[in-house]
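Study the following:
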Amino acid sequence: MVRIHVKHGCRRAVNGADGELEFLYDCETSSTIQHITQDITEIANFQLQIRQLGCQLLPPVAALLHTHRPQVIALHRALSEATSYASKEQVVHGKPLSILVLRDHIRIIATEFVVNYKLLNFQDSNFKQLLSDSELLQEDTVQLLWAGKELMKGKTLRDYIGKNEKTKIMLRLQSQVSNPAF
C-alpha cells in the first residue's frame, strides 16, 4: 500500500483552529487518480465538517457539562471522539482516516444533536443548517499536487511514482481557483 500524506486548507488560523488540515490515506499504485481524488475529497470534506461542528457545538455543550445530563455527556463524547479522530494527531500516530468511520461520526453527532438542540438553545433540529457554512471541496474543481505538479485524473498513481507499493508521498489538495501552495 502507498501511504499518502494529504494536506489541505489554508495555512492561517480559522476560528481559533489551525487552518491547515492533514490526514493519511492508503491506496495501491494501480489506483486511478480519479478514484484517489474522489476518496481524498470526501475525507477532506468530512474532516472540514467535523471541525465546523466542533467549533459550533463544543462551546455550548461544554457550558452544559456541569448539569451532568446523560444526553449532553453523550453529545460531548460524540463531538470529542469525532474531532479527535479527524485531527492531525492521526498523522503523528500513523493512522489513515476512513471514509466510513468519518461518516459514522457525523451520523452519531447528528443523532445526538437532534436529541439536544433545545438544551443548546438552537431554534430547530435542522442539522444540515449547522453545516451550511462549511466551504466543501468539489471533486470536479480540486487538484492533487505532488512536488508542485498536478496529478492528471486520467492516469494511475503508478504513472507518477512507479510500481513500489511501499512508497510514502505527500500531496496537497486544493481548489483549482487558488494559487499553488508549494
